[in-house]
Amino acid sequence: MVLAALMFAGILLLFLDFTGTWHHWVSWMPKIQFLPALLALNFIVVIALLVLTLIFGRIYCSVICPLGIMQDLIARLNRKRNKYSFSKAISWLRYTMLAVMVVACVAGLGSLMALLAPYSSFGRIATMILQPLWRMGNNVLASLAEKADSYMFYATDVWMKGWPAFVIALATLLIVGFLAWKHGRTYCNTICPVGTVLGFFARFSWLKIHFDADKCRSCSLCSKNCKAACIDYKSMTVDYSRCVTCGNCLEKCKFGALSYSHPKAAPSHQGEGKVPQETDKGKRNFLMVTALAATAALAQEKKKVDGGLAVIQDKVAPERQTPITPPGSVSAKNMAQHCTACQLCVSECPNEVLRPSGSLLTLMQPVMSYERGYCRPECNRCSEVCPTGAIRLIDLADKSSTQIGHAVWVKKNCVAITDGVECGNCARHCPVGAIEMVPLDEEDEDTPFVPAVNEARCIGCGACENLCPARPLPAIYVEGHEVHKEI
């Protein structure tokens, strides 16, 4: 289906893009996902999706949800060999997963919520697995372009943002992919809490799949091609709570025994023996369009050298007592309650500051660390793309006055003391002037100058930590704040 393909391509490219341009066009797509809209208290989108379901059934799962569309793509690869069959709904598992999700949302258990959220599961797969492959392919093109004296492509760093998130993303891809390959929409109809909620409303949808008993020949083609396993051709019934309105059954029925219509408009039981007309695909595609309109060189590791003389050690992240959350997240509590760990902010961060947390309580939710860059005052992209309200939209002026943490000087690591050299890198590059170089001993003329941090002025951007020459641990680092402050 064209609409599903466009939605899937748009969201996928949003996660893969590292140029910083694609989000200007399609950043609205994550915001019409059901769970992110619910967490962001975007009731207009939530109500629109529910109305959409009450009219068309679970069309959301086939046209809007990227994880659902991904399953359809995987199932299609095995379509010639795969024959489905009707199976009864595993209701106890569906509603147990829904109850777990509700408890996780109410209790602010973001890590548990993240494991069950379908859009977030797709986001982790795109960010942790597909984006590195995308970047590697770009680097190959950049290498070829360089040989041709072309600047059409440029190389980017490929690095592991977080092993726990990668392992979970890989496990999700393997499990969901296997279920889709062998059994179609099993994941959507047994585990996905969004599918369960929409399935409840789909029972009362205005348009549904109906059988015409006079035309049905019990050929079982509808059941064999139903990836939701919700059509029982023997009893001529459809489990509407699991039907995702994909239309496969309508296309495969050779006798015109199925229709997608309102019950009162369902075909009458007459005309036995007449040659059935082919299903009107144009009408169904029109309904689909109306439904969507209603919701408006391979990264080889190189040694870093200074002038070709000395190998520079990579920085190591310091141990922070309080993790740093992005400007706009307000507090660690707000982040835990609203973040579904979709990794969109991580994939979109141009400064390589955000990465998924490895802590059990905040597993896969974004935290900040400054080994590869710092949070530049002129960038607020993470707040622009966050669909759940975990990182609220913040303008650049407010960002520059938001204190997400404060810098702490570590005397034993400072090169002014360990190497006896003048430095002052942290003070020179502090964008808010919160660091001043002062003599270590005011009574000694030969004493080295060391940084003094004005905590009331520091915003925790991490420029000092990132640009500190001390290795492997920096001599100055940022401690996070549980609750952000305005200065």
Describe the structure.
The protein is mostly helical and 487 residues long. It contains 23 helices and 12 strands. It has helices spanning 2-16, 23-26, 28-31, 34-39, 43-56, 59-63, 66-77, 91-107, 110-116, 118-147, 163-183, 186-190, 193-202, 221-224, 248-252, 281-293, 332-338, 344-348, 381-385, 396-399, 415-418, 425-429, 463-467, and strands spanning 208-211, 231-232, 237-238, 258-261, 305-306, 310-311, 354-356, 366-368, 402-409, 435-439, 449-453, 476-486. Strands 1-4 form a two-stranded antiparallel sheet. Strands 2-3 form a two-stranded antiparallel ribbon. Strand 5 and strand 6 form a beta hairpin. It is elongated and about 105 Å long.
Strand order of the largest sheet: 1-4
Number of strands: 12
Structural class: mainly alpha
What is the count of DSSP helices, taking H or I runs of 4+ residues? 23
Largest sheet: 2 strands, antiparallel
Sum up the overall morphology in one term: elongated
* Helix coverage percent: 40-55%
Mean pLDDT: 88
- Enumerate the spans where pLDDT stays under 50 for 5 or more consecutive residues: 268-281, 289-306
User: Compute the gyration radius: what is it?
Assistant: 27 Å
Strand content: 5-15%
N-to-C CA distance: 51 Å
Short description:
The chain is 43% helix and 10% strand.
List the helices and strands and how they pair.
Elements: H1 2-16, H2 23-26, H3 28-31, H4 34-39, H5 43-56, H6 59-63, H7 66-77, H8 91-107, H9 110-116, H10 118-147, H11 163-183, H12 186-190, H13 193-202, E1 208-211, H14 221-224, E2 231-232, E3 237-238, H15 248-252, E4 258-261, H16 281-293, E5 305-306, E6 310-311, H17 332-338, H18 344-348, E7 354-356, E8 366-368, H19 381-385, H20 396-399, E9 402-409, H21 415-418, H22 425-429, E10 435-439, E11 449-453, H23 463-467, E12 476-486
Antiparallel strand pairs: 1-4, 2-3, 5-6, 7-8, 9-12, 10-11
